[in-house]
Amino acid sequence: MQCQAKRGDPRPVGVMDSGAGGLTVVREVRRLLPCESILYFADAGRLPYGPRPPEEVRVFVYQIVKFLAGKGAKAVVLGCNTATAHALDYVREKVEVPVIGVIGPGVRALASSPVRTAGLIATEGTVRSGAYQRAIKERLPGVEVIAEPCPDFVPLVEAGLVDRQEIQRAVENHVQVFRKTKIDALILGCTHFPLLRPWLEAALPGVRMVDPAQETAEELKKVLEDTGLANSPNGCAEPSGPELEFYTTGSAGDLQRQIEVFLGLTGARVHHVDLSML
Fold first, then answer.
1. Where are the beta strands (DSSP E) in 93-210?
2. What structural domains does the chain harbor?
3. Confidence class of residue 8 from pLDDT cuts 50, 70 and 90?
4. Does 80 participate in catalysis according to the annotation?
């Protein structure tokens, strides 16, 4: 893929998540913006975010965005729905770099095709915040939303999707509500959840799966182009040209294995970070 960018800011883009789920956003950013270097931060040492109080999530997200900005990130994507729900507006007021969430793009993706009843699967924190429900009501006032918190999905993804029997059991448990009330589309309201898409599609045949990651990458592209922050094509004719750097508050080895499984990358540079020491 040839780079199309015409402006010249070679600084990296930051993407953060509570764990490995944001790698689904990284995958879409790499596909759509092959010129852009990426810094990825997984807060696996404090996973999961879903049950945590909103105030605590805001503190964590602000720490990470500051860290990424300090590493030179020219824009940061909150590749975590709970982080977006609780911290997007808060962080935007405190940092100078553009900060993009995943909920707005997710609702735009939902609106791309006609829908009367939408299902939402997300963490407890995202469902409890009502952020998706409010955003859908504002953009699509006639759409009914049925929300289902799925706290057991994130640990299954973080474990590398190895326990197929447990994945099947968890999916069957959580889709029952969507069988009782027919839905047209299902919002995968956590960036971990697209990695469960094959099981969800098998359990809900004919239901459109809405993955906010692609629309989030589109929004990032627009922001970079509108603000003159897009990278120069110089030296970026090959997709492997841009640099990828990974940070985690958890196990560097675990994140490296997740990168191999979810992105197909071997030998990724992964660094352990103790944010309490910064």
1. 99-100, 117-122, 144-149, 185-188, 208-210
2. 13-103+214-277 (3.40.50.1860), 104-211 (3.40.50.1860)
3. confident
4. yes
